[in-house]
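Exercise 7.
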Amino acid sequence: MNVFNATQISRDTGEIIAPSDAELTARFRPIFERIAEGALQREIDRALPYEQIGWLREAGFGKVRIPQIYGGMGATITQFFKLLAELAEADSNVSHALRGHFAFLEERLNLRDEAAIAFWFPKVVEGNLIGYAMAELSAETGNATTLTADGEDWVLDGVKYYSTGTIYADWIVVSAKEGEDFASVAVKADAPGVTRLDDWDGFGQRMTASGTTKFDRVKIPGAQLIRRFLANEKRDDSYGLSFLQLVLLTSMSGVGRAALRDVIAFVQPRTRGFGIPGKSSPRADPLVQRVVGRVSSLVFAAQSIVENNANALEALYQARLAGTAVSADYVSANIKTFQAQQVVIDLVLQATTLLFEVGGASATSEKLRLDRHWRNARTAANHNPAIYRERAIGDYLLNGTVPETRWTALRKQKEAVDGAPESELATELSK
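Solution. The predicted structure, written as tokens, is:
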């Protein structure tokens, strides 16, 4: 049943117009607040947020971007990222853990493949969540996971790492080699031969469950083959890379918001300050006020950049639906997201470091875990090293080199040397 009152239908796309911000906020903010209440204790206990993700599942958060004509909520990209930022403020582990789910669905929306929509959207509307298992730990970048034909079906073998959110998911999207080419397949998370381990050892984002997923001769029905593509195939009709990166940046902006919230809560009740005899009120200290003001400004800037990029993606999505988007638009989206990455990372890391200036040694208490904000931001930032994106921006502006073209060229160079296809772009494209 449609939970929103919006009934007007777009003449251009046939989709029901998006719900209002107020409707979405009323539905999800109480859940975000409940998630926030236990975030510190989960950090202390390293308790995975199964229950909290269950609350989001029950409330239909996983279907927020699915159009209402398919049983979803029909939120715009802009609305989605506003909600995600609020969830990230509550617990960035949870927002990050859902990265693969939303990226996968966004690609289905982008491609408008009716068969894929018919297969996936009903499952998500029912509450299913989707995880990613793409990267591997090995001596060199590559994809050793294999997909082998078994009649009309397939057999999957391999080990993945950095499989964020997979431990909470009902389905896992996996990249694999099929002969000399690549494929992405969907695997039931509880299928025989699938093992999900919580062995992620990063110092931040500890509850994203970004650890190992093993596939031991997992049998996969032919209908669950998502896509097969050539090792050197290049996509120029998707904003998937921008979307994936923006989820990380949104989680980081949420970390900044949480840091601001916590530093205000830390300062307000304090009754002593460094170098001031007896009782005092640090909240009235101009230096403390300046620190909080600075943290607030850094967080505001990061959030504004993320919102601007979300607006740009929404415009591209609408152009895609209208049939007016061209390859240059997707290149522009990637460059804008890379540019945002360079600045948002710096802003949030500044904010999560500066906050310690308000409290002396007491601000480092393990009971407060204020350091988790810096650790979470730094860990999210490392998922896609900014230095490579920075170079890609410069190469594009100076020489017109499209980032994907450059990566494809590097892969071809590697193939010429040792004959082994390199899979960085394939992993990005396996959506």
